[in-house]
Amino acid sequence: MRSFWDSFIMLFIVLDSIGNIPIFYSLTSNMEESSRKKVFAESIIVASALLIFFALFGYSFFQYYNVTFMDFKIAGGLLLLLISLEGLIGRVEAETLRSEDVAIVPMATPLLAGPGSIYVVMYLSTVYGVLPTLLSIALNTIIAYFILVGSNHIIQKIGKNTILVLARIFSLLLAVLAVSMIRSGLEDALRQVLKGS
Known about the structure:
By secondary structure, this protein is an all-alpha fold. It has helices at residues 2-15, 17-28, 33-65, 69-89, 99-112, 115-127, 130-156, 160-196.
């Protein structure tokens, strides 16, 4: 139980489902309620699959393809930056978005199953074992789904105009997060180069 509890808490903090609520809503704000729930469900399923995969085969995958966490950070950051810039300048209209446009990228990855959560499940699998890690992934992703679905009723009461303003604000915050991920990845790469020289 201690192993499960520790792994659950650590993954819950890294997934940050509550912190992702505004960003997720801004990406789906003009969708119908049923479509929004479908997008949330798809993103949770894909994120769960990714986390389970990396919990079981993460180290083997990284070694085989010679991929590093800094690669994940830089690629995920660039992806988020492009999406946030489109949101800021208003080029992405929800009417033109299909559920698969946002459910997998950026919602499932890199927002939920990003470099941080991937690293954590690999770490948890090594330290606490596979079973506690898989249980914590299952429980955390179920909780994340209900948090996201339940948040719609609260945010909808704010009003459409307020949502439009918030969408721009959170697109800016998403851009900041993206730049932070890119910077962190580049710093890791620079440290590795300096260490090797």
